[in-house]
Amino acid sequence: MPDDLTIPADWAQISPDWMTTALAGSFPGVRVASVTVTLRDDGTNRRARLALEYAGTPGPSSVFVKAADPAHRELIKLTSGMFHEPRLFRSGAALPIEHPAVYTALIDTEREDFLLVMEDLTERGADPRDATRPLTVDQAADGVRALGRLHGHYWGARLDRHPELSWLEPFVPWNGMEIAPLQAALDRLPDAPPAVLALTIDQLIDDIWKPYIASLTTGPQTLLHGDAHIGNTYLLDGARVGFLDWQVARRGSWSLDLGYFLQGALTVADRRRAESDLLAEYRAALRLPAAKLPSAAELETGYRASVAHGLTLWLCTASAGELWQRPDIALALAERYAAAYADLDTAGALAELAARR
What we know:
Blueprint: H1 16-24, E1 32-40, E2 45-54, E3 62-68, H2 73-79, H3 84-91, E4 102-108, E5 113-119, E6 127-128, H4 137-153, H5 157-160, H6 182-186, H7 194-197, H8 201-215, E7 222-224, E8 233-236, E9 240-243, E10 250-252, H9 255-265, H10 268-285, H11 296-305, H12 307-319, H13 327-343, H14 346-356
Helix pairs in contact: 4-9, 4-10, 8-12, 8-14, 9-11, 10-11, 11-14, 12-13
């Protein structure tokens, strides 16, 4: 990937020559003639869609670009990590899972900024999903198998054989969650299980979330997407699940990705009906030698404990109103993780994990 490009302060500063250099590695001989900003979607990160025209050899008709937003730099560093996503795609590491193609990934450590030039998924007819449009069981099964392929590829000692990923950090809790006005979210979830409605923010963070996060450094480590909730997925042809926004890529236990995805991607009824079969799908997709394959009981315990992460993040998000996420999305996810917390006896699973350490 080119190292002679600077990161523009505004998308309008991207010139045809700049974009030609950014695309040349993926589209040899390409020459961009014009760049037009067609959509801005700035939030925690700066994002835009750029329409491209060419002189001679063509490339994609549009690309998606993403960089850090200066106003949210400290939040990005605190919760995601500034450079994890560009490092992942600069590493050349294989990702045996559907994801957007990245043409250029730039890192500017001095300015604490990054930039990704990636494919515009709309050109492949991708259907971005969120909590208001849950997946079907068959669609979720495809996502589960995809996570199994990714995790199995880097399972245990296999991850250590990839020096290009030696920079991966473990998943650790971040500070600041304890200031969330939890009661504001609980007041909007009158049908949540009593065990959830009775929680204080200290109990949620110190007794549920942090013990689970601590468990992620035990057992076989693998490459984690790290933020595999339904809002970071898309569908192709109505059946194949892809994962985007790899900004929280980490090393750690498989359970974080699997539980966070599955418990939020399905309706409560569909999860209850299908999760045992979906856990079996995941286990088969790992394709590990029998001696390395986690037992069905181990998978079940880790999966039950993993509710701690989704419950904490989405109760805290829902408590913030419109600050971090649309309220309908945040509440839908908070409701699903709350139901899973009771259904799966997450407190009991956390106690089981603690006893094993």
